[in-house]
Design a protein that fits this description.
This protein has 149 residues and is an alpha/beta fold. Helices cover 44% and strands 14% of the residues. The chain is built from five helices and five strands. It has helices spanning 7-15, 23-34, 84-107, 117-122, 125-138, and strands spanning 40-41, 52-54, 59-64, 111-116, 145-148. A five-stranded mixed sheet has the order 1-2-3-4-5, with helices on both faces. A hairpin with a 4-residue loop joins strand 2 and strand 3 (59-64). The two termini are 32 Å apart.
Length: 149
């Protein structure tokens, strides 16, 4: 299947996609703040520049887009039908980079929470934030990777 846009138009569309302060990140940040959590955003001193860093709890939160980080068994994570090789390489490098960053954070004794974009849409936001808050508060003693799916 060919793209409905020209190569230049597609390039312009893709270049406008932001990587920081996305809508899902903002939703999670506002909800955590309303629960009394204070954090840093996109902290450059940690591997992977985590979306949300809670230094007091030694916890980082990544808010992953299902397409960009290849969320398994998610309808939003399918590859485009054009330029397949490019997208396979792009998504594969994102996955490898994520694994590497998580390994480095574990070595540095940080707790990791990954929230997928589709979960923000599917679950009640209140229950999702409650689940995240429980992970932050109960698991900050050890080096446990918590994944919220």
């Amino acid at each position: 299947m060919t793209d409905i846009y020209t190569k230049d138009k597609r390039s312009k569309i893709m270049s406008n996609i932001g990587s920081v302060s996305t809508k899902p990140e903002i939703i999670i940040r506002k909800s955590l703040f309303s629960k009394g959590f204070r954090y840093r955003i996109n902290y450059k001193k940690l591997p992977g520049k985590p979306d949300i860093v809670l230094p007091k709890y030694r916890t980082v939160i990544f808010v992953h887009g299902c397409f960009w980080h290849a969320h398994s068994n998610c309808k939003d994570s399918h590859l485009p039908k054009s330029n397949i090789e490019f997208w396979e390489n792009k998504i594969s490098s994102n996955i490898n980079r994520d694994k590497n960053n998580i390994e480095q954070l574990v070595d540095l004794k940080w707790n990791i929470i990954v929230i997928w974009e589709c979960e923000i849409k599917k679950k009640s936001l209140e229950s999702l934030i409650e689940e995240v808050a429980n992970c932050i508060l109960t698991k900050h003693q050890g080096n446990i990777i918590s994944r919220v799916f």
